[in-house]
Amino acid sequence: MDGQGRVTAFNRQAGLLSSLEPGQALGKPAEEALRGIPGGAEILRRVLNGGSPVPGREVRAGGRVLALSGTPIPNPGGATAGAELLILDQTELSRLRDEVALRDRLAALGEMSAQVAHDLRNPLAALQGWIEMARRKMPGDPPGSPLDRAGAEVQVLAGIVSDFLDFARPR
């Protein structure tokens, strides 16, 4: 972009992002030529007004993740004569970062699940022990009694905890 905010160079990739042919963008105001690239014209204006680079900023455009940064273009005397917008497609990198973050969260969930299952297993074992002790003290307790049903339910819970631990175990 020149010092008046008009596009002086426009590559094919910028054209794909803005839906303009490179030739159509030349001479147009940056706001018009970069309409499909959110924040692009603003970065160029900041470079022109401040005369210093504007570091990368991530934006989303047309399903893509783009990193935008601006750099001043000096004239022979060192003053800012224009600005350049660097556009890096970070879509794949962003997808990979999201995938790693999801794997980290799933790993943490697996560790937490294993800890919860272990924490449940100990009281269940104690409860089963108390039920067995009560059965010995009540030798005439008929099958299907509340004590038998409680013991069976503890076994069901213990099985669920074991299945949960098997599921949470790293493979």
Structure description:
The chain is of the alpha+beta class and 171 residues long. Helices cover 56% and strands 17% of the residues. A 3-stranded antiparallel sheet has the order 1-2-3, sandwiched between helices. A hairpin with a 5-residue loop joins strand 2 and strand 3. Helix 5 runs antiparallel to helix 6. The radius of gyration is 33 Å and the shape is rod-shaped. The model has no long low-confidence stretch (mean pLDDT 88).
Which features would summarize this protein structure in a list?
single chain, 171 residues, three-stranded antiparallel sheet, alpha+beta
Please give the oligomerization state of what you see.
single chain
Biggest sheet architecture: 3 strands, antiparallel
- Determine the structural class based on helices, strands and strand pairing: alpha+beta
Find the count of extended strands (DSSP E, 2+ residues). 3
Secondary-structure element string:
HHHHEEEHH
If helices are DSSP runs of H or I spanning 4 or more residues, what is the number of helices? 6
* Strand order, sheet with most strands: 1-2-3
Ends distance: 55 Å
Rg, nearest Å: 33 Å
Instruction: Kindly report the average pLDDT value.
Output: 88
Low-pLDDT stretches are none
Share of helix, binned: 55-70%
**Hey, roughly how much beta strand do the residues contain?**
15-25%
